[in-house]
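2 proteins. here.
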Amino acid sequence: MFGHLLWLLLHVSMSVRGEAERVPCARILFIHIPKTGGESVKATLRKSFPSFNFLDHRSYDWKSLYKREVRKGKKAPRNLIIEHHVQSEAFGNIWKDIPKLQNIWEEKKCVHFSFVVIRESEELALSAYSYCSRPRFVRNKQAMPKLWHNVVHCQDRNVMITYLTTRNWCGKNGVRHPLGDSGNMSNAHFENDTMHVEDACSSNKDIRIWFDALRIYDMTELDVLAKEINSAFVGLGRIRQFKRTNSSPIPSAKSLHKLSMSRLPFVSCKYSESNRKRLLKFAARGSNRKIDEEIKSQAIRHISCDQHLYKSLRNRGNMGAPKDWDNGFEKMI
């Protein structure tokens, strides 16, 4: 019995190995949007596929990579993981290259898998603000708590769209959307609150096309991503699970959470001990913990086009619509 089981395991192992050896080449392309679990995805891919060459976004130039991949006869790694961080080249500048690369990989009989991870817009904006509040050139970086009063004053509106098109992530530079001349209102102030989101976010239809060649996963669905990558690359590696990487600590986060929708007496774009203590002193006045309707309204407008884009992407192909997106900010209150 034991001998038969051992033979069966050996047979399966040889079959899987044989299948892997018959694959001429393999490509995994990961489009990395910040604060969507990208560091965890990147670290897990590197560990789970040790035989693959790994290109971190800091280690290559997109244009050079593209030319090397499409050039016939040019020697390239057999198996390759490409992490493209939008920080290195705006997604709006490279999305047209992706289907061309996929066609080349098909011609070369490569197994390929191209994907992006996205995140619910409220959580993304809050996380982006907190991340950007960390002081530079400090070893043990600490971040500000996720308070909307600070977010709307310290961050560009629709941070995901702004980043995809301009690479601007931290700060409030008043950058207009590159598609602004064609009717985009992604960073508009919505002075007329009756403006319909469909009209205000008209350029989202153009941006949505950028994702057509990608598999789209929500940050909460990394287990699904792992299963589908494992299925595509049998014998070449295996992801057991994506492990979360540590984020910067947020001192007094629990004590200050009740101020999430409060109007604050000052704006804090960067972390400092003095700012934290001032917030704690303000929070100690229980009457100041109430929801400020104007801050809530500003927060909703702040992410309106991001949320519209997020919903449309979640309705795409390999993703199901989330059950709670229509609850808006109610889940935060």
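next one coming up
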Amino acid sequence: MKASRSYYQVRAYNIRHRYDVNGFLEAYRRLLQKAVDEIWAEIRWIEKRDEKGRLIPMIPKDNNFKNHYLRSLLMDGWSYSKHYVDSAIKQAYSMLKSWRRSYLKGERRKEKPVVKRRFVRVKETLYTFKDGKIKVSLRPHEEHLVFDVSKAWFLKRAKGELGELILGEKHLTVTFRFKRDEGEVKGKMAWDCNERSLDGFSPSTGWIRIDLTKLFHIHRVYEAKRKRLQQRASKKPSLRRVLAKYSDREKNRARGFVHKLTTFMSRKFKGYIHGFENLRKRGCSTAQKHTTGTSQRSTGRRS
């Protein structure tokens, strides 16, 4: 008898907040960069070269370095909860492992990763969820943030247990992780992302094509508007505000289109497992780069 397989799914929902967390996020960004710097300094470059003739990087895994030296170094001067130091170490190792995979594939250079985005991953040990309120600790027994989600629309749909939180400047991302048995899955569907269409295939449904011409049109129209304004803005600085307004308008209209599209897909193909093409293409021609860039602006994915 064949054992049934299970799949884990994670669903994320955004909650807008008005807290001023810029100082905390910047402090964590610097902490994370410091962790990356220290780990990078300890990387050993093995003389055994790969197919592309480059040295092989070996990321330090020694517990004494990771759990004692690095942790003690990052704790020095850190005024927030010590659990954020553990999160920074874990995230720094994840970043460098991702860089190493890309480096060995020839997609990245021998350059240290730089932390630019400001956000914090909040582990389960750093928050409590009670009576519809999420309480995130910043400083033990001193400072915390409270998010009331008792009337949030997603609570009726959310399955599984509350998982990791992601705190940003304007949003708190809440994740739910749950197990799904293979018997509950209707099928699997593979998607190919193109410039003007999203093409999918499943043995049970056959070929499916979703038209993205409207999204392509949005990007092209605002691209032309920005190009004209950029030429004039160099001589007239006041036009920079208008340029920023057009950029925001493009982003909002593209986001609205993508939101409607994903809502349609989730309802139309409910119960399916979806696989998407990896958009991290490198070494493309100029035309291919433009195509990929258009898709990335819409989906928010960056190389």
